[in-house]
Amino acid sequence: MLTKGVEFLSEVSEHQLRDIYRREKLRKPQLRLLAALRRKQGWTIERIAVSLEQPLMTIHGWLTRLQRRGIEGIHNRKQTGRPAQLTLTQKRRLIKDLERGPPHNSSGLWTTKLVQDHLRRKYKVSFVKQHVWRLLDQLGFSIQRPRKKHHQSASPEEMVRFKKKRVDWCTSTGDVTSSSPPKMKQLSV
Predict the structure, then answer these.
(1) Is 169 within a domain?
(2) Given this model, what pLDDT does residue 180 score?
C-alpha cells in the first residue's frame, strides 16, 4: 500500500526533499522528487499525475520505487542488458579466421551466409544476417564487393591499344594536358 502525507518517506522531511530537488540537475530525477514532495504534502496520485502531465501508472511506479528504495530511488539503476554470445577471446579468433579468408571460396571474399555458417559451426552461436553485419562492423570489417564488369567491356589488349592511340593522338595535336593523368594539388599547411 502506497502511503501518503508524513508517512510517505518518513525518514526524509519535506524541507530535505526541497533541498534535494533544488540541487538535482537531471530532469527525470527532478520530476520524481517533485512527485515525492507533492505526495508528502498529501496529494493524490491522480492530482500529481495531472500536475506533472505524466501517466498515472508512471507516477505510481515512481512513488512505489521511492517508498521501497528510499531517496536513492530517484535515479535509474544501470541495466546490464543481454550478455554477449561471443567472448572477447572468441571475437579475436574470429578476426583471425576472417583475415585468413573463407576456406572453400576461391574469390577470397566472405559473404554473410559464409560468416553465419562459420559462427554456427566453430562457435556454436546463431545470428541473423543483420546482426552478422553489425558484428563485422564492430570488429572493423567493411562491405567490399568486386566491381561488376560490363558484358561488352573491352579486352585487356583492346584497352592497351586504345591508350596507345590516345597518347599518340595527344602528342600529335600538342594537347599535353590530355595525354597525362591529372595531377593532384597538394595543400601546404
Answers:
(1) no
(2) 54
